[in-house]
Amino acid sequence: MTFKAVAITVASLSVLFLGACSSGSNQASSPSPAATTAAEPKPSESAAPTSGDKMSSDKMSSNEMHGGHGGQVVEVGDYHLELLLGKESGETHMDVFLQKGETHEAVPNAKVTAQVQAPDGAQKTLAFEYDPAEKHYTAKLPSTAPGTYKVAILSDIKGEKVNGRFSFKQ
Questions:
Q1: How many helices (H) and strands (E) does the chain have?
Q2: SS3 category, 151
Q3: Got the DSSP string for 43-90?
Q4: I need a surface site. Which of 81, 113, 121, 135 has the fewest CB within 10 A?
């Protein structure tokens, strides 16, 4: 990569992470964990996704409409991004379903990472691995401290950026 490309990538990721970690009043409220965005959500939305460096106006939709797995869902263009969480001994198991099209076909060849801000402000980057049997990406967050966690899921699919912002409480 050229210096310019590296600088643009670093700047873009920094802006995305800062936006995901900001404490604005645009957090959605719902009975389940809410997703967040830097754009003002519509009353019927729980989140708005990002794609690359620009905001998308695609609507987040309910799990019933998209055959979800019970997690937080963000639709980004042709992609379906879903985050599921599970508490384990001393850590949080994170599953990311990255799917494409109306049929929600799994996307196995992406590079998926998460930038997580813990309740105490500590930041951690996690790399996800693809589980071919389960057709989703997995990672473990080594923390179960109580409070709100802010998560930016960053996906690179052959150069195409598919990103979503989420939050959850422990």
A1: 2, 12
A2: strand
A3: TT-S---EETTEE--PPP--HHHHT--SSEEEEETTEEEEEEEEEETT
A4: 121
Top pLDDT among 37 and 129 is at: 129
Burial class (CB in 10 A: 0-12, 13-18, 19+), 47: buried
Q: Model pTM?
A: 0.63
**Tokens 């198991």, residue located:** 93
CA atoms within 13 A on the CB side of 149: 24
Could you tell me the two tokens for 163?
């990103």
| Residue found by looking up tokens 């980057």 in the block | 125
Across the strands, what pairs with 94?
85, 139
In degrees and rounded to multiples of 5, residue 119 shows phi and psi of: -55, -30
DSSP 8-state assignment for residue 109: S
pLDDT band at 112 (very low <50, low <70, confident <90, very high): very high
Asked if residue 37 has pLDDT above 50, the reply is no
For 31-54, what is the mean pLDDT?
33
Host H or E run for residue 12: helix 3-21
- Strand (E) or helix (H) holding 134: none
Q: What is the overall mean pLDDT for the chain? A: 72
Q: What angle do CA 152, 21, 158 make, to 5 degrees?
A: 25
